[in-house]
## 1
Amino acid sequence: MPVTQKLSCVVDRVVSHGDGVYTLTLRPERPVPRFQAGQFLHLALDRYDPTGFWPESRVFSIASSPSRRDAVTITYAVHGPFTQRMERELTEGQPAWIKLPYGDFVIDGGADVALFAGGTGVTAFTAFLEALPADMPHRVTLAYGARTSDLLIYRDVVERSAARLASLQVMYFVEDAAGAMTAAMHPGRVSVEAVWPRLARPLETHFYISGPPPMLRSIGGDLRALGAPAEAIHIDAWE
Amino acid sequence: MSSSRRLREEIAALVRQYYQEQFSGRTFNPDADLVHYAGRVFDAEELCNLVDSSLDFFLTANRYAERFEADFADYLGLSNALLVNSGSSANLVALTALTSAKLRDRRLQPGDEVLTVAAGFPTTLAPILQNNLVPVFVDVSLGDYTADPDQLREAIGPRTRAIMMAHTLGVPFDLDTVGELAKKHDLWVVEDNCDALGSRYRGKLTGTYGHLSTFSFYPAHHITMGEGGAVATNDDSLGRIARSFRDWGRDCYCAGGENNTCGTRFSQQFGTLPYGFDHKYVYSHIGYNLKVTDMQAAIGCAQLAKLDAFVAARRANFDRLSRVLEPFADRLLLPRGTPHSEPSWFGFAITVQPNAGFTRADLVRFLEAHRIETRSLFAGNLLRHPAFQGIPHRIVRDLANTDVVTNDTFFVGVYPGLDAARLDRMADVFSRFMRGERAGTAAGSGAA
């Protein structure tokens, strides 16, 4: 794990995606430390006094590229008291504290990989997708689901990556299929059943799962049931 | 402004005043003062940081340690730098990290061989033995005192798994050969950079070539925090393993006073522990506690800001001594860098030539009697010391030059605290001896 740092930030930009989902761009006082795609940060709302202890915080995947040192981007959905405070208090120009980088959810690009992303969980994969080399020798499959097609908020990043990477195949899943759907979109939740037949070498593929806890459990269980080795299943789970 | 903030500022102002009173403006008296071989070089900033940190009373590593580790990693251009309580601890942590089971079949196992030299400081060698590995000694070249590259090639055996050596007195060892051997034979490389902070090889900082590198911040070194050291690596897995060995062997990487930075403190499975056992108390290694205090790091932050100037001063002092001693090169072997290197000199090593007409003891006694501090090139041949007799080891050819180092080599200082007056004094004393003067050597010879 690289050297972790605590940084004071200013909220530079807030994008509301609707349905209580927001993307924040935070501009820190000092350059963002080196991190790897898939790692996360802690965000605190109460002022951090560097001479004392770190205040209450929550963890968020870093959605922006590691090559960007002037800002970090996170996406969150309002669920509980902390994210409700974030919604109220983190408006443009407001201060926040972050400490980073943390986490082992770093994708090994040395094998075929299948990425299962539910909702804002896709942020664990966006930096990886953007950093993939055009001549990536291994196959990358992304199964990306959300409640509505409008909440596939990183679709532009995914589309950009797919346009330049022949080795990337993308499957979208939309639970509420009443909205705008395209041919690439599957109705319903992200499912192993839909993805497994699309994998060239499923038993040699490494699986990465990021999303809400019920999805982590169900996808993980389904993969194991199909014979995926336990060491090939990587889950981005936080308490 | 809060009253505590105002008080801190008042205290800082007083500390600056104290520095002026106590430490500033001292002049050198050649008739009474020692010309040290090394020492602390500091100004009011170090004192202010130290007091500022003490007022936090966090005591264990905190904001200054975090800042030092980040700035030091940036200086090196590496992703990981972790503070430890000495350069020796850094060596212990770095080499022990390579024994981690997390490295699977690449881990060092008891009986594996590590290439090194016998002419050096004991704690480059000690971790090899402490991990039940077998040192393989190659001889050094006189003048640069680093491993002979031909002997390194010759030393590779079926159980050779690593190379761990120091850049002696700031002189980079042959990193081309070491890199080539590491690649060809899949060897780990640990650079003991304790005496070489700021040295470069082919334009790149030493301490950035190996899988792991180590640094010392003891007062004699390029920067100081009293007691202190660091381990650096660009490999995040090795960084985490090294951190674990430093921090009791625990699997958790939370800093002191932090909880659940991994977000999975109570939801992991380890060994045969019950599921969800507190990650803070899960141990993946048999480790140590080798951490620093924030007060040490606070001094280090002020020192790191001066590093470039310190390195430049060491080089300038080295050049000046070289010019002074060059006329005596027929009797004194003067130090030199290895090809492609720009040493950040730790000291100025001298080997008394066989035909000199005097011995090292004669010269050292004269220098010490005239208050010029000298040091042996550390332990000389470590295998001749009581602690290392009978250790399992292998020697390539012989250690003839290593024995020359033991018998005929010493060094004097080039540290930034040597001003023109002190360097003039050194030049004068050396010149008098080389012209034949021997008076005064019967007097107490000071510390050696």
Note: Residues 443-448 of chain B have pLDDT under 50 and may be disordered.
## 2
Amino acid sequence: MAEPRFHVALFVTCLVDLFRPTVGFAAIRLLEDAGCRVSVPALQTCCGQPAYNSGDRNDAKRIARQVVAAFQGFDYVVAPSGSCAGMISKHYPELFRDDPDERGKVAALARRTFELVSFLTDVCGVSAVDARFDGSVTYHDSCSGLRELDVKRQPRRLLASIEGLSLREHTEAEVCCGFGGTFCVKYPKISDRMVTRKTDDIAATGAETLLAGDMGCLLNLAGKLKREGSTVRSRHVAEVLAGMADGPAIGEGRD
Amino acid sequence: MLAGSRNFKANAERAIRDADLQQELRKLSGGFAVARVKAAENLPEFDALRDAARDIKDHTLENLDLYLERYERKAVEAGAHVHWCRDAEQARQTILDICRKLGARTVTKGKSMIAEEIALNDFLEAHAVEPVETDLGEYIIQLRREPPSHIIAPAIHVTKEGVAKAFREHHKGHDPGRPLDEPPVMLAEAREILRQRFLQADVGITGANFLIAETGSSVIVTNEGNGDLTQTLPKAHIVLASIEKVIPMLEDLSTILRVLARSATGQEMSVYTTISTGPRRADDADGPGEYHVVLLDNGRSDMIGTEFEEMLRCIRCGACMNNCPVYQQIGGHAYGWVYPGPMGAVLTPSLIGIDEAGHLPNASTFCGKCEEVCPVRIPLPKMMRHWREREFERHLTPARARWALKGWAFAATRPRLYRLLTGAAMPLLSRFGRRSGRFRTLPLAGGWTSVRDMPAPEGRTFMQQWRSRTRAEADRSPPKP
């Protein structure tokens, strides 16, 4: 095999680490197929977003410092999540804007950090993946990926290259699913209305599988679809792109 | 208006159960929001104009004292009386004094959010001056004795049937058996009544969308023309405006107007844009004999120089609430005070205090749609986060949430401990949820499982699996830079 183009550190994200390790392995496969060498720094836990969005700036900064230290020395840092990648690339610099000693390092990490699918297309120049998926899918644009990182066409472009897959867009693909981190447990009734609006929209497409690029949205949407008794399956887009969508979908059992 | 923002959660849940409200709210995403997208698409320079509008407002805020004084000088030259008011109380009293001097018994009112902010109607009524709202939406909610639920469509929560009911109750002279099921019929009836009120009024009060420093003029935009009748027919016109409404030049007005209506309703322009400068002059055919401007601060100057200063760019178009997925589910009354939706979530705590309005900046998923549509690019989610920071610093965050956060942060900053805990918990959880792949209930996760299932983890954590896979290989420590 040729010399790897980039040495990439995988930011696994806490939700992938805890709930859906398959997505992490799918990300590694996709990155390696794109010619990258992939490392997984051991000293990672979370990006700090729960603290940051709860107004706990100090803990957010402590966690951010840990991320900055753990992810030094790589060409790029890639996360299978628009939300965590956005936290590092857009919000870390804002978190350290008044710390002249740390600002530089934080900014350098921010510049090198990407969401997985847009990294594959925009940095690695991947325009097709070698995978097959028989069925119809609909794609939910997670808010942070869409609005902070401009992730919209990239997953659709790669999905279009998958043999057997047909994409049926839902009309409000860009509308928030109502997850919002702690929002969904602080205001469950409002969140319920928001996610129901989405699941209705998703069901109307007739698609068999819901895809998205963020585990937060997916846990929420899959949890609601299951509660409703829907047959729609939910998967992270990386699973399908990597040809690793043969195990149980999110929220599905093994029997 | 007494703030009900503390009850946000209960208000929101009531709104969700209100079938009529839900029916009206469904029109929002299909109506204003869709029209806004079309209007923006039809104007290639729309985004450039948003930048220009933002820059005009920023420049003005940086030099606010200068422009306010210039505005005052020019307005006075044109014959205006300018009254500087520090707070709501002072503004209300100033307006009442003007009314009393003129012996006013009724005042007509154009739509003014500042009048709502200072609860002007209740105050005037209590002092024997009858206020009559002349904007149709405001008129409807005045009859129903409700606050507005939207800053540009105050009666958006009221069904057609609700309007008919209010008219039957209050329009006493009309035949009780008359048909009132079509909007044009209701409009004609309201118009007939309001015509009389316009002619009777002693004083007309309007808000101001803008104050022009260059000319000392005030500007209102309306779709009904009610503002014009309100301000030209009575003996005196009172303009009620907050200090951040000032902009430097007429030229700036033309820039901002191009993004205002497009962002609000998707119109290219509002139907009426009315610029008034001073009272009636000797050779004017009509106009008020007196022209007063009540300039209200009410906490705004305290926002300057803070992380909330950018909020003062707001031009009150309502795009943030039209497009907000939370507002779309609960409407404006749930927010419990004058300003609802994302702009309210930032502005309300500034004006009535974060202790009162603590829920508002928390009731957001930070989806970013509000910032995406804001014509003056106010970073609303960022400022809501700043409010959460203030709450956290002042220990206003609920204790349970605070401790949960602290416990989690303790583990998250100790990767080895975190590995140990998650490595024990997730496989166990996975084993319990193995058959169905999800949980219908889960201890400590009631907020989640009350409305949706919790998907079960796959099994061992990624980091556990990764370690086993790479254990054979040499330690993959990153290369030194």
Note: The domain at 6-122 of chain A is CATH 3.40.50 (Rossmann fold).
